[in-house]
Amino acid sequence: MKARVLSIAGSAAQGSAGIQADLKTFQECDVYGMAAITAIVANNSKTTQGIFIHDKEMVKAQYEAALEHVGVDTIKTGMLFSKELIEEIATWLQDCPTKQIVVDPVMIGKMGSQLLADDAIVVLKEKLIPLATIITPNLHEAGKLLNRKTMIRSVVDMEKAAKELFKLGPSYVLIKGGALKDQAIDVLFDGERFNYYEKPRVRTIHTSGAGCSYSSAIAAELAKGRDMEESVRLAKEFVHAAIRHSLSFGRGVGSTNHAARRNYGVE
After folding, report:
1. Helix, coil or strand: residue 10
2. Residue 253 binned pLDDT confidence (cut-offs 50, 70, 90)
């Protein structure tokens, strides 16, 4: 049977991030992708309201339809926005037939949109992260989860943060170091040892969807039965190629290129 992955996340109208990035990634990673959409993100110059939140019943109906009609091997969560929805999703996942859960603690979009309410962080830490097989925060998100006042600036800082985040209950912590000044290195911690994933830094601003795609690629590889270290390695290759061959449409931050690994290979 083909591996199946469900993403519970927001929809990004411009196609580079969120559910759109997740489904493109699932397709490229050769798994069957499904979506339960939590919100519509549609920032543009013609409206003052760019985020439209779905109610819990609407999200639950999508979730149950996916599980009932297809089934699932891995679940990935992205933009969840509210504490009420996080609490609800955590309740569903406690009884979910799969325990492979990838939590991407999405907080701020590349365009600056706030994608997680301030009062939702505590609930994320207490209710959802303890259920996670792996969490995948970037440096900013790791700092917010730990309530740090200073930025994580080095690999040593990342290691310390990973140890602290592991205490919240996930089986693995992956801290993404794309915002480090001199390196593009990610740190994976399993409670005992660290693994490091490094690729040459790509000098580009066109990285919209990189975080979503990275966590989705991990979810896809786990669904196919790979172990965590191999899943992260393959996901890192996927997202590095997507950034290296990113797309610009002439306005603002462009998109990662989800077909890059297939079209150009990996470095």
Report:
1. strand
2. confident
Q: Which residues contact 49 (CB under 8 A, 6 or more apart)?
A: none
The CA distance from 138 to 169, in Å, is: 18
- Concatenate the DSSP letters of all residues of 161-204 into one string: HHHHHHTTS-SEEEEE-TT-SS--EEEEE-SS-EEEEE-PPP--
Alpha-carbon gap, residue 190 to 255, rounded angstroms: 31
pLDDT digits (tens, 9 = 90+) for 114-152: 667 778 888 999 999 999 999 999 999 999 999 887 788
Q: Rounded to 10 degrees, what is the CA torsion of 211, 135, 38, 220?
A: 70
pLDDT in tens, 196-216: 999 988 989 999 999 999 999
Q: At what angle do helices 228-244 and 210-223 cross, to 10 degrees?
A: 140
Q: In what order do the strands lie in the sheet with 74-77?
A: 51-53, 32-41, 4-12, 74-77, 101-103, 134-135, 172-176, 185-189, 194-198
Helices 210-223 and 18-28, packing angle to 10 deg: 40
Alpha-carbon dihedral 78, 138, 17, 221, rounded to 10 degrees: -70
Question: What is the model's pTM?
Answer: 0.95
d(CA 25, CA 220): 8
